[in-house]
Amino acid sequence: MAKITMGMLTTILYFYVISEAVTARVLPSHPYLNGQEKPINIFDTSKYGILQLGNGLAKTPQMGWNSWNFFACDINEKVIRETADALVSTGLAKLGYIYVNIDDCWSEPVRDLKGQLVTDSKTFPSGIKALADYVHSKGLKLGIYSDAGAFTCQVRPGSLFHEKDEANLFASWGVDYLKYDNCFNLGIDPEKRYPPMRDALNATGRTIFYSLCEWGVHDPALWAGKVGNSWRTTDDINDSWASMTTIADLNDKWAAYAGPGGWNDPDMLEVGNGGMTYEEYRAHFSIWALMKAPLLIGCDVRNMTAETYEIISNEEVIAVNQDPLGVQGRKVYSYGTDSCYQVWAGPLSGQRLAVVLWNRGSKPATIVVGWAALGLQSSIRVSVRDLWKHEYVLENAVASFSTRVDAHACEMYVFTPSTVTHSSS
């Protein structure tokens, strides 16, 4: 009989714990449905996989900041340091925004004579290690970017076939997060290109968040749960209502595949970049939070408006995103012209529900949600807390709930079923 080593035992115990955790998360029906009614699918996590990454990260969706949406290639170490400072001084870091992620354009256009990646000497003269040390001194974590191809999207050296060297390099610098893109991929299937970096990151011994940016090309929700901590389900977002709503719908398809350890990623937040209205940005943030999407700020946090700060610092909405139950909310009902009146919902810990009423039409409207759409018995009474007004708007709603919603706006609530037993007399 083969001897069981301590390493083998650790692995067995790890997969047992993860398996038990996943099993515990699969809720077969809504706890308030009776036996005669058909269960609603908002609790379905049956497609969620067991991670092979084993890094203990992403128990809730990642939060932080990424340089791309606002700065693109116009980045340097000063911007990164000042951003880390701003996350702390504004209080955003205390709310959970801990990753400071450098996107493309941080490296020289070519490798050095030893074939190693080299930090751009003009924009990052102190090097990534010094920058990581600075970010760590603020109680934050540093993220970096590479590509599962021959080149990055901005034609800097990619990491395809260099996974081991790159992972060791990133670990030596103190990197905490890797966004791994999909450009110049030589036509090789992503299912073959992304696992080698997972294995290389595991082998470094450093805990590094692995974010796959595969753009949803090969439906990564079907396979990336065994590869990374999050996976892009869509193409890049841009700062427009049309882009944001389209991406929300695309990501919604994969709700049953997400869970603690691995999340669907509909791309970074555009809140504060100027292309949408206040109402549209608030809807963007609300739906991303409900979908358990990564909350990665994409604006210049050094120069935010009060409205932008109000949106991204809403602790009650963030709490929905970070809820430990870890079930992705989804679209449960829609009606009206082009299905513009929508109800999105998802379960939370404590037998609560997060509910978003979203008006994607061009005029204000009253949106109604009946209990059947939420998997509730019609007799169930719920308290309704408005997460944007920060107050309870109803204590005993029964059978349905409705509210007036402005065009391109949403309202977001937590429904808590009453525990009071009423006598029939």
UniProtKB/TrEMBL annotation:
GO terms for biological process: carbohydrate metabolic process. SUPFAM superfamilies: (Trans)glycosidases, Glycosyl hydrolase domain. Its EC number is 3.2.1.22. Residues 340-414 form the Alpha galactosidase C-terminal domain. It is an enzyme of class 3 (hydrolase). Keywords: Disulfide bond, Glycosidase, Hydrolase, Signal. GO terms for molecular function: alpha-galactosidase activity. It comes from the Eukaryota. Pfam families: Melibiase_2, Melibiase_C. InterPro entries: Aldolase_TIM, GH, Glyco_hydro_27, Glyco_hydro_27/36_CS, Glyco_hydro_b, Melibiase_C. Residues 1-24 form the signal peptide. It catalyses: Hydrolysis of terminal, non-reducing alpha-D-galactose residues in alpha-D-galactosides, including galactose oligosaccharides, galactomannans and galactolipids. Belongs to the glycosyl hydrolase 27 family. This is Alpha-galactosidase. It comes from Handroanthus impetiginosus. The lineage of its organism: Eukaryota, Viridiplantae, Streptophyta, Embryophyta, Tracheophyta.
